[in-house]
Automatic annotation (TrEMBL):
Cross-referenced Pfam families: DUF1499 (PF07386)
Protein name: DUF1499 domain-containing protein
Entry's transmembrane regions: 44-61, 68-96, 102-124
Phylogenetic lineage: Bacteria, Pseudomonadati, Pseudomonadota, Alphaproteobacteria, Hyphomicrobiales
This protein's UniProt keywords: Membrane, Transmembrane, Transmembrane helix
């Protein structure tokens, strides 16, 4: 608490007293201090948001290694969480000691919550979706990734491991719509449609093999990227002839992390929808 004593004008009346009064009662002004917690909460929230945005930009444009980029993002989010803690401490100080700064504390709290909205959404997905980073339309016999020199170089030497049966079962329960696509077209035409759909989605084609020849089945390998952070993820497509057309199987694998937060299932479904639409357009 700070007490301010006003000064007396030498040629005028005192505060609250007329000129005839010989004594003056000076008014004491009580000024409550501004909460330091409230002052720093919005500042820290802004700074944490900027650090988080820098980490996202560094990853998206490939300026740092993936681990370093996530470290910057993590540091920024930690600062935002600290801003929430400061806001709560400010609320306590304002309530208990009558300090000023309620508006600043509320602004810091709200700003921090807005910044944390996106991480919170990802956290909900991490809790509600199974821990998978490999999704396929054929859980019994997933399409295999090529180990050619070109494919390995494109994937940085990464060879997706096979998942345990229980994890494949978890995929079937969580993503029942991720299933093979059957087309009433010849395998050769299906391959061209698959390639066109992949290019339309912005995938980087690594290598492809048309159906026929010694193997019989066709194959297409590509690299896709996550929407925000632009992280590379690997996709392989298998094209096999059936009695009356073609069967398309897809497998999408994340290179980083044990949880894809549903991105691979979304990618597979989006790709199959694109293939179906192109086949329908060609038929019409």
């Amino acid at each position: 608490m700070r007490i301010v004593y006003p000064t007396q004008r030498p040629d005028g009346p005192l505060f609250g007293i007329g000129r005839r009064s010989g004594r003056a009662l000076q008014r004491l002004t009580v000024v409550e201090p501004f909460s330091g917690f409230a002052l720093w909460s919005p500042r820290l929230a802004w700074f944490g948001g900027v650090v988080t945005a820098i980490g996202v930009a560094l990853l998206r444009f490939g300026k740092v290694e993936t681990s370093a980029g996530f470290a910057v993002i993590g540091a920024g989010l930690f600062l935002v969480l600290a801003a929430i803690a400061l806001a709560v401490a400010a609320f306590v100080a304002i309530w208990a000691e009558g300090q000023r700064g309620a508006g600043s504390a509320v602004w810091g709290f709200v700003l921090a919550l807005l910044i944390l909205a996106w991480p919170a959404m990802l956290g909900i997905k991490a809790v509600t979706l199974p821990q998978l980073n490999d999704v396929t339309t054929d859980i019994d016999s997933p399409p295999e990734f090529s180990r050619s020199r070109v494919a390995l170089a494109a994937r940085g030497g990464f060879i997706p491991p096979e998942l345990a049966p229980e994890r494949r079962a978890a995929q079937a329960a969580a993503y029942p719509l991720v299933a093979p696509l059957y087309l009433d077209v010849a395998p050769g035409q299906a391959y061209e449609t698959v390639r066109s759909a992949a290019e339309g989605l912005g995938w980087q084609i690594v290598e492809g093999q048309k159906p026929g020849g010694r193997m019989g089945q066709g194959r297409l390998e590509a690299i896709a990227h996550t929407p925000l952070l632009n992280l590379p993820e690997d996709v392989t497509v298998r094209i096999r002839a059936t009695a009356d057309g073609t069967r398309i199987d897809v497998r999408s694998v994340s290179r980083f992390g044990a949880h894809d937060l549903g991105t691979n299932a979304d990618r597979v479904q989006t790709f199959l929808d694109a293939v179906s639409e192109e086949v329908a357009e060609d038929a019409s």
